[in-house]
Amino acid sequence: MPKTTIDLVDPELRPTMESLPAFKIGTETLAEVRAGVLDFVPPTADYERDDVKMESRTIPGLEGGPDIGINIFTPIGGDDLKPAMLHIHGGGYIVGTADLGNVGNTRTASEVGCVVVSVDYQLSPEVTAPTAVKECYTALKWLHENADELGVDRCRIAIGGESAGGGLTANLALYARDCGEIDICFQLLIYPMLDDRTVTCSDGNPHVGEFGWTRDANAFGWTSLLGQSPGEEEVPPYSVAARATDLSNLPPAYMYVGSLDLFLEEDVEYAMRMLKAGVPVELHVLAGAYHGFEMAPEARVSIKAEQESRDALKRVFEQ
Description:
18% strand
């Protein structure tokens, strides 16, 4: 038996984990943490490719709200209509920017051959749910309505994101299903942040949540998004996917989560509930991986997770 949780961490992931600065996120430190996260936005030279065109635009936002920023990654070449994915960045609902996904989105556009549109939704606590998911839906509608200009096949539009972006992806799938305007062909859920009730759970796996995204950070993220304490009886609509009572008629899903990730149990449970509702789901639990483990990009588990998720996206688009 391991003496500490660190003994369970994949050895190739430990150096990156140990090099990350400790942080405590809260009202007083939020601005500082947000500024620190921007340090992880890569320079253009780190991700630009000759076969992918990147551009940034703004589109009309919600009524009374600001315009929404989007980054568009388009594979160059070919006359056929291309599939597309709406990407939603992570950050606990409280930090982050679409630019954080530039490296991965460029690779996805190049290797999968799809257009990627990444959305800069508003963060909490400045806005509360369901503002962010409605902004993501606005971006999805824009993608669908402008498919001809973008060279996109409207029948092959997927959605995906990591962490809070994965949570927004799950909520967006529910919201789009209920609106009945756009058919989504696939949802890519990367260690999604799905259940505010995890904050109040004291009898879960003792080995999760020590690294990457902690219980304290989770509590602050959910409180900021919901505008109330996590775990209350009622929550805003389309804010907590795990609380949805009907998971039927959702698009097929691919999900992975690390065995040391705070979201392990809520993710596995959500995947099982989708399966029971008749939704095709492929779920991977990655041994020794903590939340955000891809910050060690050279680790074999990071390479494998990224490649297999892109392969899953490609398979759906080729059907």
